[in-house]
Amino acid sequence: MVFRLVLGCGAVGRQVAERLAERSDGRLLVVTSDEAVVETLRDESIPARHADPSDPETLANVEQPDVVFVGGDRTDVNRSALENARGRFPGASIVASLGGNPTLSDRQTFSALADHAVDADGAIVERVIDETASRSAEAAIGLRQELATIDGPLAVVTHDNPDPDAIASAVALVDIAESVGLEAEACYFGEISHQENRAMVNLLDLDLRNLSPEDSLEEYGAFALVDHSRPGVNDGLPESLDVDIVIDHHPPRGPVPGSFVELREEAGATSTVLAEYVDRFNIGFDRATATALLYGIRVDTNDFTREVAPADFRAASILWPHADVSLLQQIEQPTIEGDTLETIARAIKNREQRDSVAVASVGRISNRDALPQAADQLLAMEGVETTLVFGFRDEMAYLSARSRANDVDLGETLRDAFERIGSAGGHADMAGAQLEIGILASADDEDEVESIVSVVEEVITKRFFEAIQSRPGTSVGTYTQTSEWLFTLEE
């Protein structure tokens, strides 16, 4: 339950108090020096106290609020109330009205102490309500409270082989944690191999730690997951790890652990959520972080054309003035490696198409990030609406899928087909999976390896076509070949 404290009850403050009283998600207390207003509010069953909101003694006996709204009409009274509230409640989210006649010094003080300063001359009640009671505001309050309880350092962990959205989200959460005095580090398992992802990290000089499964985690006092939601699933963490914070935009498959969990499925990117948090914490945008977040949103929404939401546009508008556009252009136009072009060529050559669904194995790969690029290239072919491209590296099979068909949910499709024998998930129009093919390690020679790979290719292709076929409203041609003995992988 959220506890909201209103200090001062002027023209805006009165309307805000009455609107907040209508909410059923928390408690409210109004403190004002106007005794008549106190009586009126009490008649309306709104908790109110007669006291001077600018007097430090007034706050001495008030319990810690989650949100404070300073809503008097006079600038000098609001400034004193703001200064006292920030000193008494350092962990609260504070929204303050500037009052009737603020000076430059007043504006600077309000900007420094309040999470959000509202100019009363142009304020509307809906704006203030949004800052004090919206879902994202309450989530920011919850995150602030959780960070305040953590005895760091905090490890902010992305999913394996992170993409721009995961990288940017981790860096932004580190900025937020450090703004409240908590030591934090952005971490990932695997590698950053896609040329655009490497360009992003290098050009923006982002600070990331590459963990290996053998590394000890004892140096960290707490853990946060970004852009995924379960430890041990698409990351190198133990499945039994206690997680403190989870921030993601993917639909979960099963229970999500964590003291603070924000799953914003309607957002097109986790970077959107983190951009809102940075803005609401009022810590200012580091240029590299803002550029990374903007790029993360653009990649995950395919330049605002795929699973995009109004929140993504709002976040982009917040980030744009702080981002380095010239660096963004360099990140988006890196050189393409020869191996990537060869992988794309093999996908086109080896594709097997049934109706509008194309599946391709590219065999052994050196760079797994070439797979989504190959899947995108197949999707651009005439008559193709859904693609799956997969390849092998060490003892793993990596899968990447794309779709522009309205009747296909790739995230669910890949989970149905492969989750029992690996990890799989994603969105309706793009998803991926990883399958451990341990049998490759026991092969004695290259011919035997190639024979096993051929059978695995057949099984992956079959299972994907069958999973597509089983989804409501979809239809693909019949796939008849099978090698049932390989289904022992499920055991």
From TrEMBL:
Positions of the DDH domain: 155-297
GO BP term, pick one: potassium ion transport
Pfam families in the record: DHH, DHHA1, TrkA_N
Domain DHHA1 intervals: 356-461
GO MF annotations, alphabetized: nucleic acid binding
Domain RCK N-terminal: 5-97
PANTHER family the UniProt entry points to: BIFUNCTIONAL OLIGORIBONUCLEASE AND PAP PHOSPHATASE NRNA
Descriptive protein name: Phosphoesterase RecJ domain protein
Organism: Halopiger xanaduensis (strain DSM 18323 / JCM 14033 / SH-6)
Lineage: Archaea, Methanobacteriati, Methanobacteriota, Stenosarchaea group, Halobacteria
